[in-house]
Amino acid sequence: MAMMSRAGRVSAAFVKIADTLVADYDVFDLLHTLVDESVGILDAAAAGLVLVDPGGDLQVMASTSEASQLVEVLQLEAGEGPCVDCYRTGAVVAIDDIATDGSRWPLFQASALAQGFRSLHAVPMRLRSRTIGALNLFGREAGRLSADDAAIAQAFADVATITLLQERAARENALINEQLQRALNSRIQIEQAKGVISHTANVDMNRAFSMLRDYARAHNETIYDTAAKVIDRTITI
């Protein structure tokens, strides 16, 4: 019964995450839902999420507590720590006992212990060979995350990763579509200008385009802008 209850909680968490994925969903809402559900289901003391920005730097994007956010920020400022290593390697970094196993990251070890954390499980946010961040689970007690909990944590991270990459691709596709539409509009206007030049200069369409392009280059204008001037008779080529 307990397993079914926990399975129900996990299922409900995925539904809750999915509910944030409306057409114009808020990325920050998704990320905060992810860390909140991670804490609630995996019995972590705190959870935080770091993502790489367009400049290649890691940024803390969501945390369930000021304490965990502080530990993560200190790692990012120092450029080292288990959360940073998790992102860089794309592999899970588990520290069962920060007091005894965290000495290779002195700043992280000191800050984590000062905030009352005794264990950490960092999960990469990775899709195939691309890693975009890490989901970090902090514990108040020393000990390893169970295999089931580790699998659930990775599943949460995977869902967030896929969603974020889809959102990024959608924005990129929207930009591409906008650029294509502008190109289409430009082509229509340029064809109209070619017709005007062909008629007024008594040349064929290929020559008309060459004349249009040459004028644009000579006057440091786009072909589109020159075409607009030809159409409204601002210039005659």
Provide a compact summary of the structure.
This protein has 2 domains: 2-166, Beta-Lactamase (2-Layer Sandwich), CATH 3.30.450.40; 181-231, Arc Repressor Mutant, subunit A, CATH 1.10.10. Helix content is 62%, strand content 15%.
Describe this structure in words.
With 237 residues, the protein is an alpha+beta fold. It is 62% helix and 15% strand. It contains nine helices and five strands; from the N terminus they run H-H-E-E-H-H-E-H-H-E-E-H-H-H. It has helices at residues 2-19, 27-42, 66-78, 82-89, 98-101, 106-114, 147-201, 205-218, 223-231, and strands at residues 46-52, 58-63, 93-95, 119-127, 130-139. A five-stranded antiparallel beta sheet has the order 2-1-5-4-3, with helices on both faces. A hairpin with a 5-residue loop joins strand 1 (46-52) and strand 2 (58-63). Helix 2 packs antiparallel against helix 7, helix 3 packs antiparallel against helix 6 (106-114) and helix 7 (147-201) crosses helix 8. The chain starts with a helix and ends in a 6-residue tail after the last helix.
